[in-house]
Structure formats: structure tokens, C-alpha cells
Specification:
Elements (H helix, E strand, L loop, with lengths): L12 H10 L3 H11 L3 H17 L4 H11 L2 H10 L6 H12 L1 H9 L8 H9 L3 H16 L6 H24 L1 H4 L10 H12 L9 H17 L5 H37 L9 H17 L1
Length: about 300
Amino acid sequence: MGFFPCTFSAYPPVLVLTDFAMTIDYSEIRRGFYSALPLYLGFIPLSLILGTQAHQMGQTPLTAYLMTALNFAGGSEFAAVSLWSATPPILLITITTFLINSRHIVMGASLAPYIRQESGLRVFFIYCVMCDECWALSIQDAQRRAQEKKGFSFWYHMGVGLSLWSMWSVTCGVGALIGTQLGDMNSYGFAMALPATFIGLSVAMRPREQYSRYLPIALSFIAAALTTVYIDHIYAVGAGAVVGLTCAYIQQVCKEKREAAACAHQATAEAESSTKPSTVTSADHELIAATCSESKEER
């Protein structure tokens, strides 16, 4: 049944959800909520601006709320609203939204090793409430807990994600409701909250070693800048996302090939220098394959 656990087909859904609710760790939810509170300083003005802009483009408070509640990705929502018109370019909005949100593929993959022990239903909810800020806080918490030999805190993640999701969607609906009274909020400089939030997250999550990891960031910036200057600014985000993801993918593939070659060379050298005959036997080949397989799983 996809994301849902196999027990879902054996037991009534009510029993599964009841058992799910009985395991709630309210202390971890509160810890997640408190961790997310500082982000409200950037979220509230941003969601009000988004709601106001959606209202100016003809959306109702209900549609503005549903847009943010069902999508929960502020960057793509701002892009969609900026492209909205009397006859909105649906294909362009769809492609732009997908490219902007494609970063969630990378974020989800980086979070996956920490949630291997979670059930299918929990994994579904983890990714439902995951946004950039929730991911950044959760993965830092998961890394700290891993050093302490503790598992991933599902309820901490939900405390962060649900608090940000509910505040973002409700405040956007409020912004669309009172949009005419707020006027142009950009004149107050609140729009700076979006890049400031992402800059803060980028600095906190920056690679402190292996400076080659900065290459996708640099190429993404250059691609976005060139697209803005020579083509059109509405394609800048998409171009930057495609170039950055492509560079990161190529880097990862090259890294895995180098590590696999080094692992095979090391295992072969160890087998040849052992007390056994100098020829590499079939047992040695099996040992090499097993060693490389274990190394790959650890990565």
C-alpha cells in the first residue's frame, strides 16, 4: 500500500491510528515547537506578504490557505503567485514549481539514513511536513542524537513541522483576508525575511570540510545570474536548480566511483600480501566484494 505499513491491511485503520496516537511523545513535540519559535520572526511577515500578493492576483482567502496548506513550500508559492495572471501560464507555473521543489528530493535523500527504523506511516508524515527549515532543524538534531547513540526523534520532527505548517498556511489565509488593509508590505522591507532565512540556514548547514561541495552552489548562482541577464528572470530559479542538482549528482557519482576503486585496490593488496599464496583466489575475490559492499552500506 505504498507508504502505509503492511499492518494497515490486516487491522482496521481505526486501530492503527489509535495505536499511532498512543505513542505520542508530548515532551518531544514541545521541544520541536520551541525550536521552531525563532523562525516565526521570518515566517509570519513572509506568509502575510504571500497572502496579500495572492489576494492582489484574485485569489480568495480559502484558495490562498489551500495553496500553502497543500504545497507547503514557500519559494514555489511565491514563484507561482508572481506568474499568476488573468490567464495564468499553467505549464510554466507547473514546471517552475517542480524545479524549485526538486530540492526536496535531495533533502529527503539526506534524511533517509536517519529514519530507516521508522514505519511506513511515520515516513509518510515525516515527508508531508518537511520544509527547508524543518529539514535543517531535524537533520541537525538527528546528527546530535546519532553521536549520543540515540535514534531519530519522530515527534521532535513533527513538532517542528506541524507548528511551521499550521502557522504558515493560516497566516497566509489571514493575509489574503485583510490584504486590502495591509497595503504594500514590501515597502516595510519584510520581503527581506525570505532571503535572510535561507541565508541563515545555508550558513548553519555549510560544509566545513571538502570545499568541493561549494561547486554546485557556485554554478547554481552563476546559472541563475546569467539566465536573469540574458534570458528572463522568471527562469532563473529553475536554471539554477537544474545546474546545481546536475553538478551535485555528477560529483556524487564520481566520488562513489573513486571510493569503490580505492576499496577494491586496498582489498586486493591486502589479499596479495597475506600469508596465503600470492595468487588471488576466488575466496579473496569474495572477500573483496564483501568489503566493498559493507563500505558502500556505511556510506
